[in-house]
């Protein structure tokens, strides 16, 4: 598993509503008109293991 971060502008010229991305079954975090939205499950684990798993997860923040 790996995390990949890309600006939405890389995929579309249109304004994207993060509420639409999260829909009724996703996750949405927004503050000051900047946010992240997602859907689905990448992994399940006990809450006590989450910080450790996220700390070792490879992340590719490259913007081409």
Give structural notes.
- The protein has 64 residues and is of the alpha+beta class.
- It has one domain (3-60).
- The protein is built from 2 helices and 4 strands; from the N terminus they run βαββαβ.
- It has helices at residues 18-22, 47-56, and strands at 3-4, 27-31, 34-38, 59-60.
- The longest helix is centred in the C-terminal third of the chain and has 10 residues, at 47-56.
- The mean pLDDT is 81.
| Beta strands, count | 4
Low-confidence stretches: none
Q: Main sheet?
A: 2 strands, parallel
Q: Report the β-strand fraction as a percent range.
A: 15-25%
Helices, strands, pairings?
Elements: E1 3-4, H1 18-22, E2 27-31, E3 34-38, H2 47-56, E4 59-60
Parallel strand pairs: 1-4
Antiparallel strand pairs: 2-3
